[in-house]
């Protein structure tokens, strides 16, 4: 199984990076975690076949994590996709998806797809199975608008992938990522403490409790990108592949 960082940037494209979108593939799995506004061109640029994707997990409704869905769904429609697709995310996702579809492409939410589209709301700390993928969401803290906000613990192919999503430090990150084979964690700043985002030094203070087997930092601001050569941890880059 492998995870490819289709995009690992923040909302403002710091460092010229694409918005958040991770592609996970294995013998029996093919899914995305988040689908930020720039995800469709990034997927095409990296030669990823969208028709094979069975599941898209959305962490929250900010545009750099959610705004690519209308483009991806319309591309699937015009490409005559027939394979079923599941989009799962926080409660309210069905209404939010219709709203963003209408905002970007009027009447698109009312168009009947050529393929079966299922939109599924996930409840915090309730495990759900999607074929060979088991997903447990955990609530995180990232402001008031754009939520609810979820981190994910994903079990597939005998491996565990955890993703913090965008959040300030919250204790729920410990069960979400404990002993994960791969923990993808936001590190927006190095040591600056701000509401709704996670700094690397704050994360470091809890790594002994989390004990991830592998840590990769993502969603970095210019502050972090300027320190890449000095970091003690792996940092994501667009196109980077992690074998699991």
UniProtKB/TrEMBL annotation:
Tell me where in this chain the Metallo-beta-lactamase domain is found.
Answer: 18-219
Domain of life from the UniProt record: Bacteria
In alphabetical order, the GO MF annotations are: 3'-tRNA processing endoribonuclease activity
- Cross-referenced SUPFAM superfamilies: Metallo-hydrolase/oxidoreductase (SSF56281)
Mind telling me which InterPro entries this protein's record contains?
Answer: Metallo-B-lactamas (IPR001279), RibonucZ/Hydroxyglut_hydro (IPR036866)
Extract the Gene3D superfamilies matched here.
Ribonuclease Z/Hydroxyacylglutathione hydrolase-like (3.60.15.10)
Instruction: Quote the Pfam families the UniProt record gives.
Output: Anti-Pycsar_Apyc1
Name of the protein in question: MBL fold metallo-hydrolase
UniProt organism field:
Bradyrhizobium sediminis
